[in-house]
Inverse folding.
């Protein structure tokens, strides 16, 4: 296990940590206050938990998984996954083993940004369509080819 810049790392008393796990600064492996007995997460082998991430509850983070910086994970994560966001969402699940040397915390997928970009593109498309329709209606009105009773 490796704790990089360990300031602010919190590890609950019933947490189980596998081999070759990396925790960065500000990580919390905590409980939700609702469980009795085993209250904290289990991190299997080769898990990386990036800066400021919070894993809360008595469930397992599967081997070879990555938790993105600032994520809040509230449910089990299968092996070989990448989780980002609040609440944490699995954004990569390819059943390929993450190399032990891969500690890239910068190039993780951002599903929220992807959704925003998709919505911006759709909004632009709808605005263009609306302008086209308004222009078409004005042309029809100028020609007088419309029904006055409408």
């Amino acid at each position: 296990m490796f704790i990089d810049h360990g300031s602010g790392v919190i590890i609950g008393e019933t947490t189980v940590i596998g081999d070759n796990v990396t925790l960065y600064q500000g990580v919390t492996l905590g409980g939700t206050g609702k469980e009795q007995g085993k209250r904290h997460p289990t991190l299997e082998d080769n898990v990386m938990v990036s800066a400021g991430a919070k894993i809360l509850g008595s469930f397992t983070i599967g081997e070879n998984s990555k938790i993105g910086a600032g994520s809040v994970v509230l449910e089990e994560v299968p092996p070989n996954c990448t989780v980002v966001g609040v609440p944490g969402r699995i954004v990569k699940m390819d059943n390929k083993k993450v190399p032990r040397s891969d500690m890239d915390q910068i190039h993780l997928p951002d599903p929220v940004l992807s959704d925003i970009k998709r919505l911006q593109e759709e909004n632009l498309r709808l605005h263009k369509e609306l302008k086209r329709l308004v222009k078409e209606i004005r042309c029809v009105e100028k020609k007088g080819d419309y029904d006055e009773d409408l």
Helices lie at 111-143. The longest strand covers residues 89-93.
